[in-house]
Amino acid sequence: MKGFNFYQDGKQQWRWHLKDSNGEIVADSGEGYEDRKDCEKGAALFTTLGPNAPERKIKEPDTSGNGPEWEYYEDQRGDWRWRFQAKNNKILADSAEGYANEANVRRAIQNVKNLLQEIGKQGANNGGGYIPPVAGGSTGGGRFA
């Protein structure tokens, strides 16, 4: 299902995944939240700010940006990743995977921007739902290494 899916991880913190029309996870929450409402607010803020925010290439992740903005960078393993910072430089979202090169990560950012615009036009969470917690919590290539 395309849109935001909300779930609790192994530590019982609320998180979200953003899925495209193919059901692939294209973004995830930059942190866990104690309360589902706060998690939903984070997703809504990403939906509002993300589509028109500028992009900035950085050498390594930090929190010194001029958010809201998309930052993209090459990680220590040579994968390209992106993350989205709010105005207060808090990370709201990051890439669900690494990309082979800079062109691919920039294309991924544009695809997520387009998806966020579509979701924003259709309404708040676009039918996102609850996914029960799984043993081991949430892991994956979208987390910063």
Uncertain spans: 124-145
CATH architecture: Roll
Task: Tell me the domain tally.
Answer: 1
Largest sheet: 8 strands, mixed
Alpha-beta content class: alpha+beta
Order of SSEs? EEEHEEEEHE
Give me the number of helical elements: 2
Shape: globular
For the secondary structure, the number of strands is: 8
Ends: how far apart? 28 Å
Helix content: 10-25%
Instruction: Quote the CATH topology.
Output: PH-domain like
Task: Write out the strand line-up for the largest beta sheet, numbering strands in chain order.
Answer: 4-5-6-7-3-2-1-8
Please give the radius of gyration in angstroms: 14 Å
Q: For the record, what CATH class applies?
A: Mainly Beta
Beta-strand residue percentage: 25-35%
Counting copies of identical and different chains, the oligomeric state is: single chain
Average residue-wise pLDDT: 85
Overview features:
single chain, about 140 residues, alpha+beta, PH-domain like, 2 helices, about 25% helix, disordered C terminus
Briefly say what this structure is.
With 145 residues, the chain is of the alpha+beta class.
